[in-house]
Amino acid sequence: MENLELFSHHWFLSRNQIMLSFNGALSQEILVNLAEMIKQKIFSDKPTESFAKRVFAIFVELAQNIQRYSAEKESFDGKVIGSGSIIAFDADNRYVITSCNKIENQYVEEIKEHCRHINTLSKDELKNFYKETLRKSEEEGKITGGVGLIDIARKTSNKIGFHTIEIDGSYSYLIIIVKIDKEEGR
Amino acid sequence: MDNLILTKTKDSLEIDFNCDTGVFYMSGNSYPENATSFFVPVFEWIEKYIIEKAEKIELYCKIDYFNTSTSKCLLELADILEGYSKAGGEVKVKWYYKKGDIDTQEAGEELFEDYEIEYEILEY
User: Fold this and answer.
1) pLDDT over 70 at A163, yes or no
2) B78-108 burial, b for 16+ CB within 10 Å, e for fewer?
3) Whether pTM exceeds 0.90
4) Are A53 and B101 a contacting pair at CB < 8 A?
5) A138 pLDDT more than 70
6) Cβ separation of B67 and A61 shorter than 8 Å?
């Protein structure tokens, strides 16, 4: 990477108030450290434990979705770990956490429908949907067990943003955007 | 049988289950890479306790954060406890949440509200 590119990257991170940016295989050790880091940063910015924990929870679910379900995998310590990107930034009135990972095209519609559906639900409906889905998800490998996304939706009053970008005949990128208002109360 | 002692880690719970007193403690955070791998031995131990000891179970939970995979495992734990309770076993659950931590308070309610288990949601 040239100096100008590096500076441009640094400038981009700084200008967009990026609190955390990670790309690669989300090993558990890395995930734990990133999660703790984001929790600390949020807490120092807004010293309410329950709020920091909520952002932490959203981060963990997004990161573990990459870890488990990304179609791009790396061998790590004898294990196969999902790879992707996760970014957290401060957007003044809110925090934003966004993830990006490869998924197989066969799952695109299913995941999008799941997100669309979640976004239509009220607080109580989300609770019920969460409970139902939790009961149903027998196998860990079920792609739209999607309980993680339901849990995320319960932790923010904003709708979950989701986009897919087709790469080729086999894969697409899945981008999930979660916004958490700083003034989020109960 | 031996007690079940698992050391707390950053992403997995401290487990301290005493087979003589029937007092079971679970505390810490739970978001391991594979929650099922963590909990299966815990369930097996409890089932062994139910068969071999058949005494009371007093479960104390002080779980600060748990991920959705753990949530699924906690349902299975509740299934086991309810099964024992219905079969005549004495089961009491105390779920603790830190003062102000509504999420954990509600998580406890949500977990046990559908079960026929004696439980309390308590602040500390």
Assistant:
1) yes
2) bebbbebbeeebebbbbbbbeeebebbbebb
3) yes
4) yes
5) no
6) yes
